């Protein structure tokens, strides 16, 4: 998306791909039921980039040395997310695989399979395997599976999951994997799930520190888009790619993009004034990284979920706790102390004393 948009705007993008095929995780997503259009779309976009004359360099990993050699005006990091395994005992067992390898076809799983993670990736992989005759159980730590899907997609997926015979189980925190068994905690009980294979679905952003450092030292603009900034959905990646391709050459933008962002620590962001302050800072995400402190109430967790993005870090805790506040202050360039106990709450809780 970024390369095509830049080329149409008469810029000269260089598209580097570390493998021998364009498409990344869109190709993998296209292997799951009802997502074939994603694979077709990304193949079509690759063909369009070639027709437009984009400088495409396959089997080319971008390194700090390459950035220094090319010395571009701007680097857009779209390297995506990397597969990760759950940090529990036994996570290196030979019968554990990742959903990426399953969808890519580099591993073949059969028999009784336990998938850890009931989000979009996990449920898509579950349907994919169920259609191949595999008996699938999906373990989700949260209260609901398909929680990261829109309402319509969630309804359709749940119906398909039921029809495919997939067994989703919620509220299970996996604690150990051993001897072809997944062990977990569900409420106050220890639960076990015998299996032939375990499929992990977790992903995390790749470390772009070295690339970022090289860009800042050379006064080169640097952006991270999509999963390179934070593991999210495809729509985030395409939107960010398009926006940056349109805005990177605006007056003054390069000055912000070619130097480290300022870190702002704010309290009271779940209140009216704090929330508006946070929104204003996040709208300037080319200049600021926003770190906020919030109490981990059910209401606040739901509220902060709406603002999830690479520019926001949430520290869950109490403003009266010294160590929690110190975590927020350490490394911050600015501190905005907005949190307060005000009327009528202050009148109802007179025992609350000032902290200073």
Description:
There is one protein chain. With 356 residues, the chain is α/β, with parallel strands linked by helices. It has 3 domains: 2-81 and 206-257, Rossmann fold (3-Layer(aba) Sandwich); 85-201, FAD/NAD(P)-binding domain; 262-348, NAD(P)-binding Rossmann-like Domain (Rossmann fold, 3-Layer(aba) Sandwich), CATH 3.40.50. Helix content is 35%, strand content 23%. The protein is built from 14 helices and 18 strands. The chain has helices at 2-8, 25-29, 36-52, 64-70, 99-104, 120-130, 151-164, 209-217, 234-247, 253-257, 272-282, 298-305, 322-329, 345-348; strands spanning 14-16, 55-57, 74-77, 81-83, 96-98, 112-116, 135-140, 167-170, 172-178, 181-186, 189-194, 197-200, 203-205, 221-224, 262-266, 288-294, 312-316, 334-336. Helix 7 links the parallel strand 7 (135-140) and strand 8.
Short description:
The protein has helices spanning 2-8, 25-29, 36-52, 64-70, 99-104, 120-130, 151-164, 209-217, 234-247, 253-257, 272-282, 298-305, 322-329, 345-348; strands at residues 14-16, 55-57, 74-77, 81-83, 96-98, 112-116, 135-140, 167-170, 172-178, 181-186, 189-194, 197-200, 203-205, 221-224, 262-266, 288-294, 312-316, 334-336. The longest helix has 17 residues, at 36-52.
């Amino acid at each position: 998306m970024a390369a095509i948009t830049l080329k149409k705007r008469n810029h000269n993008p260089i598209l580097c791909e570390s493998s021998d095929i364009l498409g990344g995780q869109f190709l993998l997503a296209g292997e799951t039921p009802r997502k074939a259009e994603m694979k077709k779309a990304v193949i079509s976009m690759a063909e369009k980039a070639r027709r437009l004359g984009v400088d495409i360099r396959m089997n080319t990993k971008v390194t700090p040395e390459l950035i220094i050699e090319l010395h571009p005006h701007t680097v857009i990091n779209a390297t995506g997310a990397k597969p990760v395994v759950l940090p529990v005992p036994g996570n290196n067992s030979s019968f554990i695989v990742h959903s990426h390898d399953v969808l890519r076809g580099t591993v073949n799983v059969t028999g009784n399979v336990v998938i850890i993670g009931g989000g979009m990736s996990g449920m898509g992989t579950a349907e994919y395997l169920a259609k191949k005759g595999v008996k699938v159980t999906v373990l989700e730590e949260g209260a609901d599976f398909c929680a990261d899907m829109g309402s319509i997609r969630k309804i359709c997926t749940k119906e398909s999951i039921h029809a495919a015979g997939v067994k989703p189980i919620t509220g299970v925190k996996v604690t150990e994997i051993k001897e072809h068994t997944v062990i977990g905690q569900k409420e106050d009980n220890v639960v076990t799930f015998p299996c032939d294979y375990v499929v992990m679905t977790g992903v995390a952003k790749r470390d772009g520190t070295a690339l970022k450092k090289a860009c800042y030292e050379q006064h080169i603009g640097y952006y991270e888009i999509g999963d390179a900034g934070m593991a999210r959905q495809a729509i985030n990646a395409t939107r960010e790619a398009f926006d940056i391709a349109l805005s990177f050459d605006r007056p003054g933008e390069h000055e912000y993009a070619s130097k480290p962002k300022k870190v702002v620590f704010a309290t009271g962001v779940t209140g009216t004034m704090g929330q508006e302050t946070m929104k204003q800072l996040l709208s300037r995400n080319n200049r600021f990284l926003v770190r906020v402190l919030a109490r981990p109430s059910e209401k606040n967790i739901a509220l902060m979920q709406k603002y999830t993005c690479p520019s926001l870090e949430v520290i869950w805790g109490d403003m009266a706790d010294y160590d929690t506040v110190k975590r927020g202050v350490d490394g911050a360039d600015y501190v905005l102390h907005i949190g307060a106990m005000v009327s009528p709450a202050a009148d109802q809780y007179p025992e609350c004393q000032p902290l200073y």
